[in-house]
């Protein structure tokens, strides 16, 4: 399919030596991308096939920090939302001390109570003697707090609105966080770096929304010695009551911490391929049906693939 034009937008954000905003031309790129199959089904009875291709709207910006490039793409898709973060750069450290690496950590902020689901195996019972079943248990997060991911249980985090119920299921509408599983801060807790990166000790934080709390590492990160980030916010309000630190039924912020540790390889020379990190938000009982059904069905016309045949007429 033919995609539309690319639009570039300026941003008055970069600070000069005196702290004044300076305009950066073409700082944000707005464009659509083909992201492969969005949904597809083949009717086993009739043999007919229907397929729709994903057409995502992307807002992208690229930041160069020394020898690294950070590519931030906010993706608005037909069946969800997300952020695609990629790290790249030159290979000026390849061949050096193998212990040298650049630790990169990004934070995604989404607004809206949070519900955790954990599917443990169901106990053996007379009606399930083979042990193949599993059950899902859910619990609300009542107050501001930090949480860890669980690879083995595939623990999920869903942001729900209890004041709005789904028309069919009569359960709260919501969006599920699709996290990027990665290591957290590798620096020792007593190091100079760790106290300044309070957010980096946990993968998920939940706080009440406050207009002045925009920076989970504190407002002046490079001049900070610690004690002014998200962990300090939560600890300072702990025990003050639900009106102060409650998150159920409140306007909240969910912070997801993820990163990538770069150990330089020979293949990163002279410029490294991107390291890709993807975070998503998936609707859960938010719509009454697949929200991407209005996407046009793919046609074998413009942009179609070409089948290659060998000299005998067979496919190859």
Pattern of helices and strands: EEEEEEEEEEEEHHEE
CATH class of the domain at 99-260: Mainly Beta
Annotated CATH architecture of the domain at 99-260: Distorted Sandwich
Terminus-to-terminus distance? 25 Å
Instruction: Indicate the structural class.
Output: mainly beta
Query: DSSP helix count?
Result: 2
Averaged pLDDT: 81
Strand line-up of the largest beta sheet: 1-2-3-4-5-14-11-10-7-8
Keywords:
single chain; mainly beta; ten-stranded antiparallel β-sheet; four-stranded antiparallel β-sheet; 2 helices; globular; metal-binding; EC 1.4.3.-; Cu_amine_oxidase_C; copper ion binding; primary methylamine oxidase activity
Question: How would you describe what is shown here?
Answer:
The protein has 316 residues and is mainly β. It has a domain at 99-260: Copper amine oxidase, catalytic domain (Beta-galactosidase, Chain A, domain 5). Helices cover 4% and strands 44% of the residues. The chain has helices at residues 230-237, 242-245; strands at residues 7-15, 21-42, 49-65, 68-77, 80-90, 102-111, 114-118, 137-140, 145-147, 156-165, 172-178, 204-208, 252-262, 271-284. The strands form 2 sheets. A 10-stranded antiparallel β-sheet has the order 1-2-3-4-5-14-11-10-7-8, with no helix packed on it. It is globular. One of its GO terms (molecular function) is primary methylamine oxidase activity. Residues 15-80, 97-293 form the Copper amine oxidase catalytic domain.
């Amino acid at each position: 399919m033919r995609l539309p034009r690319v639009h570039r937008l300026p941003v008055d954000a970069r600070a000069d030596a005196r702290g004044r905003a300076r305009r950066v031309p073409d700082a944000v790129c707005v464009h659509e991308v083909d992201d492969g199959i969005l949904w597809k089904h083949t009717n086993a009875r009739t043999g007919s096939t229907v397929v729709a291709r994903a057409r995502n709207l992307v807002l992208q910006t690229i930041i160069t920090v020394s020898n690294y490039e950070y590519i931030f793409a906010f993706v608005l898709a037909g069946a969800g939302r997300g952020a695609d973060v990629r790290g790249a750069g030159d290979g000026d450290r390849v061949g050096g001390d193998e212990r040298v690496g650049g630790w990169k950590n990004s934070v995604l902020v989404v607004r809206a109570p949070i519900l955790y689901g954990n599917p443990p195996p169901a106990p053996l019972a007379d009606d399930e003697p083979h042990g193949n079943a599993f059950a899902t248990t859910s619990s609300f997060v009542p107050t501001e707090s930090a949480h860890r991911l669980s690879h083995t249980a595939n623990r999920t985090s869903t942001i729900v609105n209890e004041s709005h119920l789904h028309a069919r299921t009569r359960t709260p509408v919501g969006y599920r966080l699709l996290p990027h599983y990665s290591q957290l801060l590798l620096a020792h807790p007593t190091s100079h770096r760790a106290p300044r990166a309070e957010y980096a000790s946990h993968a998920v934080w939940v706080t009440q929304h406050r207009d002045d709390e925009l920076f989970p590492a504190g407002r002046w990160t490079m001049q900070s010695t610690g004690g002014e980030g998200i962990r300090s916010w939560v600890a300072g309000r702990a025990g003050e009551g639900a009106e102060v630190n409650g998150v159920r039924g409140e306007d909240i912020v969910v912070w997801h911490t993820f990163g990538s540790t770069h150990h330089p390889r020979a293949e990163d020379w002279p410029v490294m391929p991107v390291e890709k990190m993807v975070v998503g938000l998936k609707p859960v009982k938010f719509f009454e049906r697949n929200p991407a059904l209005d996407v046009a069905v793919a046609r074998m016309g413009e942009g179609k693939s070409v089948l290659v045949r060998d000299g005998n007429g067979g496919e190859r």
